[in-house]
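can u do me a favor
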């Protein structure tokens, strides 16, 4: 994202709130306006991809204007990148609230896998957005100045719980934190990304609570047994 977009965001964030006790409107509450645009844009990009998404439709759904969206985000591509960043940020911020360091290593790993499964299950737009960016071969994510850093705490948390488990003798040696993260992500991601085709082929509804719960526990056990060795 270019410097102009960042400057616009900073300028928007610095605007004062309404005075005299009047209710703040969308026009002078840029943070709320931008959050609403990002929320609607996530669904639009997830459903239609970058090429198919329409700024007109996002503007209409958020009761804003194309001009305002371009003012905040610079372009459709700038908005798309902002949605990517916001989606990763939301997941990592929630993940930080798990307080994995307060749990025993195996319990911490279980909680992390369960959280990832539940997050993905409830966030199909996020999954579709990541799939769309992979179709772009990560072109727009490569332009982000924040996504890489947003994911550092996720790996640090895995490194910490794994080191504690290794010291306690409950985890085997030789497990790479990024590889473990990839394994957890892959299993939980597939459960949403492929549930329609997989479900049709095998006549199993992966959105049905009992089926989802069984799949969740299966993934937890797969990851635990892999690390326990």
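np, heres the sequence
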């Amino acid at each position: 994202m270019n410097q102009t977009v960042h400057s616009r965001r900073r300028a928007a964030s610095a605007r004062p709130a309404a005075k005299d006790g009047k209710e703040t409107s969308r026009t002078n509450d840029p943070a709320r306006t931008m959050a609403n645009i990002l929320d609607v844009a996530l669904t639009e990009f997830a459903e239609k991809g970058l090429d198919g998404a329409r700024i007109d439709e996002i503007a209409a759904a958020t009761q804003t204007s194309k001009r305002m969206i371009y003012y905040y985000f610079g372009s459709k591509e700038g908005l798309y990148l902002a949605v990517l960043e916001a989606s990763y940020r939301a997941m990592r911020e929630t993940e930080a609230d798990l307080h994995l360091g307060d749990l025993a290593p195996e319990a911490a790993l279980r909680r992390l896998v369960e959280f990832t499964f539940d997050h993905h299950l409830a966030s199909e737009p996020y999954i579709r957005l990541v799939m769309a960016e992979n179709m772009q071969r990560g072109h727009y994510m490569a332009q982000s100045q924040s996504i890489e850093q947003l994911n550092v705490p996720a790996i640090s948390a895995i490194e910490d719980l794994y080191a504690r488990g290794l010291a306690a003798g409950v985890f085997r040696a030789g497990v790479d934190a990024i590889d473990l993260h990839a394994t957890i992500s892959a299993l939980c991601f597939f459960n949403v990304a492929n549930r329609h085709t997989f479900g049709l082929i095998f006549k199993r509804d992966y959105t049905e609570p009992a089926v989802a719960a069984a799949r969740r526990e299966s993934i937890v056990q797969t990851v635990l047994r892999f690390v326990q060795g």
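DSSP finds twelve helices and no strands in the chain. hope that helps!!
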